[in-house]
């Protein structure tokens, strides 16, 4: 049976927030809080996709282990369009127990072997 534990930091998502590189870290607290706030993680993904500012701020804040009021200005000045894709990737990782989703189980090299 394959090992299910991800290597340390494998689910982290790096973003650029107001000119600073920061790392969103998936946690159980982020999973629980976002699920409860949105009525499920799929609803959180949908809200972020609709550019719901408050939900995006919540995702970024929880990923950074900060209060929403500490990041809302930075989210606004960064621009929501720059943060939607990484926030959705983060939510997907959170929903997978903090682990990135594996494509088809192999690496890129295994999926596309060099021709002989």
Show unreliable segments: 104-116
Order of helices and strands: EEHHHHHH
The overall pLDDT, averaged over residues, is 87
The number of helices is 6
Query: Structural class of the helices, strands and pairings?
Result: mainly alpha
User: How would you describe the shape?
Assistant: globular
**Spatial strand order of the main sheet:** 1-2
Computed Rg? 16 Å
Largest sheet, in brief, is: 2 strands, antiparallel
Account of the 3D structure:
Helices cover 54% and strands 9% of the residues. It is mainly alpha-helical and 116 residues long. The chain has a domain at 24-97. The chain has a two-stranded antiparallel ribbon with strand order 1-2. A hairpin with a 2-residue loop joins strand 1 (13-17) and strand 2 (20-24). It is globular. 26% of the residues are buried. The model is unreliable at 104-116 (pLDDT under 50).
The gist of it:
By secondary structure, the protein is mainly α.
Task: Give descriptors for this structure.
116 residues; mainly alpha; two-stranded antiparallel ribbon; 6 helices; 54% helix; disordered C terminus
Please describe the topology of this protein.
Layout: E1 13-17, E2 20-24, H1 28-38, H2 41-49, H3 53-64, H4 68-78, H5 80-95, H6 108-111
Antiparallel strand pairs: 1-2
Helix pairs in contact: 1-2, 1-3, 2-5, 3-4, 3-5, 4-5
């Amino acid at each position: 049976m394959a090992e299910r534990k991800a290597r340390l930091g494998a689910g982290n998502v790096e973003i650029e927030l107001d000119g600073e590189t920061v790392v969103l870290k998936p946690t159980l607290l982020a999973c629980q809080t976002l699920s409860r706030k949105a009525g499920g993680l799929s609803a959180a993904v949908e809200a972020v996709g609709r550019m719901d500012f408050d939900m995006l701020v919540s995702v970024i804040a929880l990923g950074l282990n900060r209060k929403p009021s500490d990041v809302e200005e930075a989210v606004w000045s960064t621009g929501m369009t720059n943060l939607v894709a990484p926030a959705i990737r983060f939510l997907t990782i959170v929903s997978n127990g903090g682990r990135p989703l594996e494509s088809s189980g192999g690496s890129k090299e295994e999926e596309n072997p060099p021709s002989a």
